[in-house]
Amino acid sequence: MTDLLHVFTDLTDDAALLSLEHQVHLEEVLGEHNWQVELSKPEFSFTGATPRTCTRMHLLGSAAPGPRSWLWAWANPSGFHPEASRLSESLRDWGRRHDLALFAEPEVPFAELPGQPDEPHLAATFFIEAAKTLTGVWTHYNAPAGGGTRGGFLIEHPDFELPEPEPARVMRILQQGLAEIPLTNHRRAFYSYAVRRGMSAVFSDDRETLTITGPRFTAHVAFDDLGRVKDLQARLGAATG
Question: Whole-model pTM?
Answer without folding.
Answer: 0.94
